């Protein structure tokens, strides 16, 4: 916490309003007079004046000025303070009428309301809020939103009021932390798969594919789109297509197995007729009948199922009469819900398309990154990312795409977290890293986040652990942190 404070009065002059209407295209400026922007005894005091010059305010217009504290290291970490509203005369009458209709005379979320009469001059603002640790590295901005009649958006802008709380000029030290990335291994054979579930409707006891029946058109399109996704890449080689069909439990089990098998083979025939290249591919279809495991999962995740715990007990007891026992619950109401809501989700066809793709050039990889990213390996994406300046938007975007393409891959997640640190999304990065915080590969980057937050004890602990595991980045970050702490001590004293 800062022990010494210096109050500063500064003036910032900026062309803030740039009206598009010709009648208002004039030299309109705003000055900010900073009286107090500091922290003391865990309380942040923000006190400034807005001085408007040359603004001839239209009667139907409204300007909302909103002070915002925003972290320098995490764009999502911010705090909006109560806004100031400036109304033209007509607009203020509408504003008061709106408050009256809501049974209040003042909006508690608004700091002040000023009625503009002719040319505006000055608006004063003073507010105190509890200090939070992240505010130690926060800047203060003033957002401006102007609306015309009928609430039409007219202009938006923002102005930096103070680069930091207790601003005495910037801290005389800037640094770029050493963030760790993991180089993925290269795949010798790039095997891929596209998979999905199609929920087709059939006539009772039938297996004929009816494309225009119920929602079948959309469900069949899922399979077509997956096949087309692979086919559109000339160098992809489809190895196999398999379909597994399931049935809901009503009726005789053996009949359900046979029916699901007929439906699986009927679907495969339908798809093969539409995609002739499948004649050269290993294809298979099989019916697996009733899917009790899926039903148990659906019941477990559906909070509306009546007698849920009793149903789960029955489903988890592998007896031949499970369906009958559910029917006997609650006079049949429980079974009726399951039959109407959950059974249709059991009558499905799972499909899998297995294929291989070659290693792509960087140029071709950049094209696929936007359209068929899953065909690229993490190694290829890593190589593409490093063709851009480290920390640039293009660099960070590649790692986010990789994480989307491989959401369960640890390397993809950890590299996306590293990129998020560089792009200022530290909360997102910390959430990812926390899931793997026992892995030494995360320790340096967790330390970077703590260092940026000025939580130096935690940062030092993680950097030391990372160094013991051979992290050169952690050793460099310890040196950076030593210099940062010295600069902060000088700044505060």
Note the gap between the termini: 11 Å
Q: Detail the poorly predicted runs.
A: 1-27
Tell how many strands the DSSP assignment holds.
Answer: 14
Rg for CA atoms: 32 Å
Mean pLDDT, to the nearest integer, reads 86
Structure description:
- This protein is an alpha+beta fold and 493 residues long.
- The protein is 37% helix and 24% strand.
- The strands form three sheets. Strands 4, 5, 6, 7, 9 and 10 form a six-stranded mixed sheet that branches.
Key attributes of the depicted protein:
6-stranded mixed β-sheet; 15 helices; 493 residues; disordered N terminus; 24% strand
Short note summarizing the structure:
This protein has helices spanning 89-101, 216-231, 253-274, 292-301, 308-315, 322-327, 333-342, 362-371, 378-385, 393-405, 410-422, 426-434, 443-452, 456-468, 472-492; strands spanning 11-15, 29-40, 43-53, 62-71, 78-80, 84-87, 112-115, 122-130, 138-147, 153-162, 190-198, 237-247, 282-290, 349-357. The chain has 493 residues and is of the alpha+beta class.
Present the secondary structure layout:
Layout: E1 11-15, E2 29-40, E3 43-53, E4 62-71, E5 78-80, E6 84-87, H1 89-101, E7 112-115, E8 122-130, E9 138-147, E10 153-162, E11 190-198, H2 216-231, E12 237-247, H3 253-274, E13 282-290, H4 292-301, H5 308-315, H6 322-327, H7 333-342, E14 349-357, H8 362-371, H9 378-385, H10 393-405, H11 410-422, H12 426-434, H13 443-452, H14 456-468, H15 472-492
Parallel strand pairs: 6-7, 12-13
Antiparallel strand pairs: 1-2, 2-3, 3-8, 4-5, 4-6, 4-9, 9-10, 11-14, 12-14
């Amino acid at each position: 916490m800062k022990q010494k404070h210096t109050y500063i009065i500064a003036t910032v002059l900026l062309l803030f309003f740039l009206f598009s209407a010709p009648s208002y295209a004039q030299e309109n400026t705003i000055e900010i007079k900073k009286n107090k922007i500091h922290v003391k005894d865990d309380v942040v005091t923000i006190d400034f004046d807005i001085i408007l010059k040359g603004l001839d305010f239209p009667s139907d217009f409204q300007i909302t000025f909103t002070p915002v504290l925003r972290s320098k290291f995490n764009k999502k970490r911010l705090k909006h303070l109560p806004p100031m509203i400036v109304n033209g005369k007509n607009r203020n009458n509408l504003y008061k009428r709106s408050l009256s209709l809501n049974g209040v005379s003042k909006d508690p979320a608004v700091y002040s309301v000023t009625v503009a009469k002719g040319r505006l001059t000055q608006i004063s603002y003073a507010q105190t809020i509890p200090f939070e640790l992240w505010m130690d590295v926060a800047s203060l901005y003033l957002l401006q939103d102007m609306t015309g009649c009928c609430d039409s958006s007219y202009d938006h802008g923002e102005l930096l009021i103070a680069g930091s709380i207790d601003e005495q000029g910037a801290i005389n030290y800037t640094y770029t932390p050493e963030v760790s990335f993991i180089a993925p291994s290269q795949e010798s054979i790039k095997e891929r798969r596209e998979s999905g579930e199609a929920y087709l409707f059939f006539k009772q006891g039938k297996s004929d594919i009816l494309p225009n029946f119920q929602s079948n058109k959309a469900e069949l399109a899922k399979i077509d789109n997956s096949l087309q996704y692979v086919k559109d890449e000339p160098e992809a080689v489809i190895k196999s297509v398999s379909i597994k069909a399931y049935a809901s439990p009503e009726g005789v089990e053996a009949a359900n197995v046979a029916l699901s098998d007929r439906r699986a083979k009927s679907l495969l025939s339908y798809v093969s007729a539409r995609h002739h290249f499948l004649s050269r591919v290993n294809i298979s279809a099989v019916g697996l009948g009733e899917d009790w495991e899926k039903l148990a999962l659906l019941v477990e995740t559906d909070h509306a199922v009546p007698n849920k715990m009793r149903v789960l007990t029955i489903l988890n007891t592998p007896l031949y009469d499970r369906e009958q026992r559910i029917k006997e619950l609650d006079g049949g109401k429980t079974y009726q819900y399951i039959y109407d809501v959950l059974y249709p989700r059991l009558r499905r066809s799972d499909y899998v398309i297995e294929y291989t793709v070659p290693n792509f050039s960087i140029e071709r990889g950049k094209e696929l990154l936007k359209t068929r990213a899953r065909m690229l390996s993490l190694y290829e994406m890593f190589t593409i990312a490093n063709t851009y300046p480290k920390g640039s938007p293009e660099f960070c975007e590649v790692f986010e795409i990789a994480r989307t393409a491989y959401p369960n891959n640890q390397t993809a997640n950890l590299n996306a977290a590293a990129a998020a640190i560089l792009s200022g999304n530290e909360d997102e990065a910390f959430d990812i890293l926390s899931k793997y915080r026992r892995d030494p590969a995360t320790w340096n980057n967790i330390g970077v986040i703590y260092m940026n937050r000025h939580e130096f004890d935690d940062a030092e602990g993680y950097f030391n652990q990372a160094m013991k595991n051979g992290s050169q980045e952690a050793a460099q970050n310890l040196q950076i942190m030593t210099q940062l702490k010295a600069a902060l001590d000088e700044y505060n004293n």
